[in-house]
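The methods section describes the discrete structure representation at length, but only in general terms. What matters is that the chain and its backbone geometry are given together, residue for residue. For illustration, here is how one protein appears when written out as sequence plus structure tokens:
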Amino acid sequence: MQALLAVAKVPHGSQRLNPGNSALPPKARNPRYEMNMVAILSLIFGLITFEQVTVFYLEPFIQPDLKLSNTQVGLLGSVYWGTLAVSSYGISAVADLARRPKIYLRIAIILMSTCSVLSGLATSFPALLTARAVMGGLEGPMSSIVFSIVALESSAARLGTNMGVVANLGSGVLQGFAAPIVLVATAQHYGWRVGFFFVVLPGLICAILAGWVFKAAPVIEARPRDAGVSTSDICAPSKPSRTHRNVWLCVLIFVGFMAYASIAFAFLPLYFVNVRHFSAQQMSFIMSLLGSSVIPFGILLPMVSDHFGRKPVVIVASLSGVVCPLASLYYFGPIPMLIFLLFIGFAWGGIYSLVTGTIPSETVPARILSRTMGRIFAIGTLGGGFLGPTIGGWSADHWGLRAPLLLQATCAFIMTLAALGLRESAPRVARSVVIP
């Protein structure tokens, strides 16, 4: 009824964009609880992404030890993203139906932590491929469940900022900055297998901390699970995530995002070492700076989008992704300037939380939020994460390691074109937008 009244107030012949969808809470949360929640979820997400990229930074050591071709290197990433995609949607949908995403998240953390050692124990390509498939299946639902908890537990005014902090602070420090330095140094001194053992203890500690934080969640007024004000929700209340334009554009953007990211992390280290002839230490330093770029961009861009809109931020950041591969290929000047160009070119990483969490949570009813995010993760990882490194590895075997970097640039253009079609969803901006 509230949704019908809201639409009825829109002037005839026009449609006002949904200024704040049902996934947002009706009143502010307890600030202390919200801060603790964001902190622990940021740490959890950082551990997830650290484990995800471990195999990529260790590939210069794994490849000669296990005698892998470039195609097999690509397959290690593809099989991981493939099983991640399947479990991402399936388990997220179960968590939605059970309405207990916090319990599912804690179980997933424990399983991920204990099984992360499997990759380090592998002694052949089939064994390592199987281990990566298992880890993809375990980690699949974690991102969508984490983001759905943030959306459901955050105050509306801080949704974009909270999403940005959760998605990028922990991952920027652990995956972006620490991973390349720590993993490369560990592989040089103790062997690459030890690098897969780092997540075990921190993951178990996070599961305990998550239980403590969520147990202290304040009792608040429950909001309607199906309320919403967009006409798409009213016309198709049972499946708005399948019919809403923004959801499918976010899917397309995330396909390009995942293809770009998986190709970059799989082949940039190999390109810098084998083609540009950088040392392993130089490569790890460059990749560390690139990875850490998600900290400023991943927090700043969502904050900016809270005030100026999601659409312009996604467009500009997506277009910046062209800079990284082109600078790697064609700039041969001083290394500090190269690093600066690569750093700017990694601004695309700042839109991760926007297209997978913030925009969907402002688009669909809360009752299907986790599965909508799971659908974005699933299709994005299948279309980009699974196919991207496989095509990149095949192209590298046929045309050299420059070919995957050209694919990166193409992915950035695709993301930019898709972003141009988004409808603004930021509450502060959408209230003033009227579609004729």
